[in-house]
Amino acid sequence: LTKLVKSGKQVITVVSAQGNTTTRLIQTVEKITDGQLASKSYLEYLAMGEKMSCHLLTLALEKYGIKAVAITQDMKEFPLVSLLPSQETTTTSSKKTNEFKHFVLDEEAIRNKMERYIKPLLEQGVVPVIAGFFIVDAKRNLISLGRGGSDITSFLIGKYLNCDEVIIVTDVAGVFSSDPRQVSKAAVIDQISADDLVLLSQTGAQVLHPNALRFKTDTFQAKIVNFKKLGNYIEAGTTIKGTVNTKIQAHKKKLTLFTFTGKNLSEKTKLFFSLLEWLVAKNLFIHSLSTGTSFISLYLEGDIQDFVYQELHEEFIRKKKFFTGLAKLTDVGEIKISNHLFVESPGMISMISSILFREGINIIEMITAHTDIVVYVKSEQIRKSVKILEQKLLSTNQK
Known about the structure:
Oligomer: single chain
Order of helices and strands: HEHEHHEEHEEEHEEHEEEEHEEHEHEEH
Strand content: 15-25%
Number of helices: 11
Largest sheet: 7 strands, antiparallel
C-alpha cells in the first residue's frame, strides 16, 4: 500500500473489521440479550469493529510516513448516504445482521461529499481510510449492508469517486479455476467476467460476495489481489471484467403447451422415461418442462398438429393410465429474464408478476432456474411484455 502511495497514485482505502471481530461482537451482545436488539445501539456497537480497523490502518500508514485520515460513519465527511431513513432503528434480530439490505442512495449528497471532503484529501496526497460495512441516513443513523458489506462499500466508492480501479485485498491469490483445497492443480484465473464470478461465488467460491458485484460499473476496473502481492498487483491476482446486467430475451418461435394431470406423478418411476421415449420416436423434442406432484407441463416447439394431441391421450391416458387428464394450449410465447444476482434478490418474481399484471398481461406459467426466470404468455403479448419489462427492469438500477 505504501508503495502505491509513494509511486504518486491517489489511493483511498476501505476497511472491514479484523478477522472474526464482528462475530465476537454479535456473540457478546447475544449473551446479555434474548437476540432481540435495540438496533440503534446494537449497530453502533457492531460498527466498532470497522472503526477500530479504520484507525489502526491510519496509524500504520502514518508510521511509514504516509499522511492518512480515518473517516468513520459518525463523521460528517463520511460520503455514503441513503436517500431513505434507516429502517433499522427499531428492534431487530441479531441473526439478520448479515442479510443484504436493499437501499437507495442519495447520489447528490454523495457527490457533494466526494467533492467537498474526499477529493481535496487525495489532491493533497492524503489517504482517506473509510470504514466499510455500514452506510448512514441523513441523520447519520447506521444502515448495515449485510453480507459483502465492505466490498459493497469499495465498489460504491469506486463508482462515485470515478476511480480508475478498485482492488479487493484478500488472503487468497485470486479467483481459482476450482477450489484449491480440493483440486490440487487449480490455478488462478487472470481475468473473469462479473457474471461468471457471481455464478462461482454462489456455488462455493468465497473470494468476493456476489452482492458486491451489484455495484460494479464499466467506469472502473476491479481486481482481487493477495495482500502479499499488493506491491506487484498489476501482474498478480484476478481482474474482473464487465458488469452484472439483466438480460431479457424472447424465444423466436411459438410453443405449444401440453399439460398432463394426475395423482402422485413423482412416484411413477417409468412415467418420464416412457413419455420421453415416445416423443423422441415421434421426432418431437421438449423445449422446456415443469413438474409437480399432480401435473407435468411440456412445452414443444412450433404448432403441434391435432393428431399428436389425440395420440398422447390414447397412449398415456387410455392405454398406460399414467395421467387422468390432458390439455393443449397453442401460440405460447417464452421470455427469459436472466441475471446471476437473482438468487440473492428477494422479490424478483413478485416484481415481474406485478409489472405484467398492471399491463393486463396474463402469465401462463413462471419457471425459475438459478439465474433465470422464464415467463410464458400468449405469443401475441410477447412484444408488449418484453417492452414493458425492459422499461421497468433495465432502467431500474440498485443504488
